[in-house]
Design goal:
Largest sheet: 8 strands, mixed
Number of domains: 2
CATH superfamily of the largest domain: ATPase, nucleotide binding domain
Radius of gyration: 23 Å
Strand order of the largest sheet: 5-4-3-2-1-6-8-7
Number of helices: 14
Bound molecules: adenosine-5'-diphosphate
CATH topology of the largest domain: Nucleotidyltransferase, domain 5
Shape: globular
Number of strands: 14
CATH class of the largest domain: Alpha Beta
CATH architecture of the largest domain: 2-Layer Sandwich
Length: about 425
């Protein structure tokens, strides 16, 4: 079975085509500048040269048509016909409270995702554009939606509620939702495989450290707490986001700087804060590590930013250790978690009291799957490259298989009732 995975934004989308029997990537690519002159398609079929071209037309449907053309192109493609695409899986950022798992797309699901746009204004509307475009160019092909929030929907109320008047939760859905669920689920599942133990028996802390960062407590295969909340602003220090901050700072800054709430939250706390804001140098951890380690003039604020990032994460690890009543594995993933052994070492320094002991040598790897804990570490420690697209493809394939099983048994039931 071949599954096409789409991660659609307002002016760009990424795609990846999987062969599910082997879980191999057949092709992947990116369309950028949709809606502007010079929409470009960058495509790469596994084992072939990369291909780049300008797309005709200027909307998501035209871009999706260009993707299907290149996927079936004799030189650059991997398919003889688009009919080989058995299903499409869409990544959706916000699934609200209704979706604790992936579902097949129907009009009701689309309307619900649209209604959630209030909670995810930058993400959910373009996701719908992607779904609609696929419906137009691949009519009749089943589609599934896989939500970033779904994995966290089994958090208990004491973890997801804010201590504000309960009516505000009921009226507006103000609660903690959590994000990066697909990534947390994928790496927790993979860690259990590497440990050779059932996920249902394990207590795992997964640290997704990328441009946006979050940490999750995964107990028995379920996320019981996570650091992002109502929006992806809460929690860890991030590249440009403040993470946890006293909300009283918002009106204080509005008064002092003559800013609107929108400017404080979106301008300052989302885009100019985090390690960028503290260091005044960069949001990229490579630049910060280099500057902090400068042998002539170490950058004091770069170092401070890195230490703040590590300290905040350490506090969450301690909290989740207690929330789960112990810990079997600690997992690092995403750009920083997979690549920065320097940051992994900073984070683990001071966690020895919890039985978390990194192995200096084994930790010196970038971008590969590795066990990096010392032999005497009570908690197993892993760096695991995330693969959200593969998880989306798996869940899509499972839903399609379940659907055809359900259809088959419905047919059997229908036959039985005929007599
Ligand atoms: P996104 O959240 O956009 O998917 P990624 O998971 O790709 O982001 O992470 C991007 C971040 O990873 C970059 O901002 C950079 O700070 C960090 N990163 C990538 N490679 C390295 C590296 N070798 N060392 C330190 N940080 C790295």
């Amino acid at each position: 079975m071949r599954v096409l995975v789409i991660n659609c934004g307002s002016s760009s989308f990424k795609y990846r085509l999987f062969e599910m029997e082997t879980e191999a990537t057949l092709a992947k690519g990116l369309v950028e500048r949709i809606g502007a002159p010079g929409t470009t398609l960058k495509h790469q079929a596994t084992g072939k040269d990369p291909y780049q071209a300008e797309c005709k037309g200027s909307d998501h449907t035209a871009a999706m048509t260009a993707v299907l053309e290149v996927l079936t192109d004799p030189q650059w493609g991997v398919l003889k016909s688009v009919e080989e695409i058995a299903a499409v899986g869409h990544r959706i950022v916000h699934g609200g409270e209704r979706f604790s798992r992936s579902v097949l797309v129907d009009e009701d699901v689309i309307q619900y995702i649209a209604a959630l746009s209030e909670l995810a204004p930058l993400h959910n509307p373009p996701h719908i554009m992607g779904i609609r475009a696929c419906q137009r160019v691949l009519p009749g092909v089943p589609m599934a939606v896989v939500f970033d929030t779904a994995f966290h929907q089994e958090m208990p109320p004491e973890a997801f509620m804010y201590a504000i008047p309960y009516e505000l939760y009921e009226k507006y859905g103000i609660r903690r939702y959590g994000f990066h669920g697909t990534s947390h689920k994928y790496v927790a599942t993979r860690a259990a495989e590497l440990m050779g133990r059932p996920l249902a028996e394990l207590k795992i802390i997964t640290c997704h450290l990328g441009n946006g960062s979050s940490v999750a407590a995964v107990k028995g295969g379920r996320s019981i707490d996570t650091s992002m909340g109502f929006t992806p602003l809460e929690g860890l220090v991030m590249g440009t986001r403040s993470g946890d901050i006293d909300p009283a700072v918002v009106p204080f800054l509005m008064n002092k700087e003559g800013l609107t709430a929108e400017q404080v939250i979106n301008g300052l706390f989302n885009k100019q804060s985090g390690v960028l804001g503290v260091s005044g140098l960069s949001h990229d951890f490579r630049d910060l590590e280099d500057a902090a380690a400068d042998p002539v003039k170490p950058h004091r604020r770069a170092r401070l930013a890195l230490e703040m990032f590590a300290y905040r994460l350490r506090k969450y690890i301690g909290a989740y250790f207690v929330a789960m009543g112990g810990l079997d594995a600690l997992v690092f993933t995403a750009g920083i978690g997979e690549n920065s052994y320097e940051m992994r070492a900073r984070v683990c320094r001071g966690l020895e009291c919890l039985g978390i002991i990194l192995d200096g040598e084994r930790n010196r790897v970038r971008g590969v799957e590795a066990e990096i804990g010392a032999p005497e570490s009570r908690v197993r420690i892993f760096a695991i490259p995330t693969n959200e697209e593969l998880l989306i493809a798996r869940e899509t394939a499972d839903l399609i298989a379940g659907d055809s099983r359900a259809a088959a048994s419905a047919a059997v039931r229908a036959k039985k009732t005929e007599f």
